[in-house]
Amino acid sequence: MNHIHTAQYNFCTLFIGLFVACLTGPATAQETYRVKENIHYRSGVSDDTYIHERCVLDIYYPEDATGFPTVVWFHGGGLTGGEKFIPNELKEKGIAVVAVNYRLSPKVKNPVYIDDAAAAIAWVFKQIADYGGDPGKIFISGHSAGGYLAAMVGLDKSWLQRYGVDADKLAGIIDFSGHAVTHMTVRAERGIKETQPIVDEYAPLFHVRSDAPPLVLVSGDRELELLGRYEETAYFYRMMKVAGHQQVYLYELDGFDHGAMAAPGFHILLRHVNELTKK
């Protein structure tokens, strides 16, 4: 594998990558895909109407294939809003995509939404083989709040341990512009303003470790990002390196703000999924 430790993408680089992808087309163009929607990933809790409403996921997968990778995708929305969706950029790429809803603040408080993310990932580990996927090729990803959830669950092993899953079995964590410090909504629930960063056990930065799964960090343009998100991401990258992690990657997408950076980021996600699952 070609180890790229840092990279800064500009418009030209992205255009070339996307143009090549369009020319080559998906590697599995002859496959058919199915979607199963609103699968409950928590059992025995149907009497809780909010859990019944929000703790559901959709799975999009190649119907007649086996051994394919899976990307678990968490939507953004500041932990206060948002809705699951299958990103168009990940369709017909020979992979499964699991789009997850989770409970939201202020109806619930921290750490309920983190635990929901862990429960959904654990469901994928236990069920993906039934759909043809390889449990050894599960990636977790998301944008903004979704990236924060992916990083939290992937780095702090305690969340998946409670569901009998080892976080180190993840094939990779791909974080699109998620908080590296304690999330602003977690802080808001404590009365802390968004411009006052803290790092505690609810910050991915708190859990940097050398033995974590491969970690891909993608940020928008540092001058356009939200609340210093690029600098958070860059420091997260640096501390993972200092801790001795050997497979951490940092990308800055020139010209793209916090909302717009997700679409070009999928090119990076797919490249790393392909490289990390090569035989």
UniProtKB/TrEMBL annotation:
Residues passing through the membrane, by range: none
Keywords: Hydrolase, Signal
Listed Gene3D superfamilies: alpha/beta hydrolase
Source domain of life: Bacteria
InterPro entries in the cross-refs: AB_hydrolase_fold (IPR029058), BD-FAE-like_dom (IPR049492), GDXG_lipolytic_enzyme (IPR050300)
Domain BD-FAE-like: start-end pairs: 57-222
GO MF annotation: an example: hydrolase activity
Record's signal peptide: 1-29
PANTHER family the UniProt entry points to: AB HYDROLASE SUPERFAMILY PROTEIN C4A8.06C, CARBOXYLESTERASE
Protein name listed in UniProt: Acetyl esterase/lipase
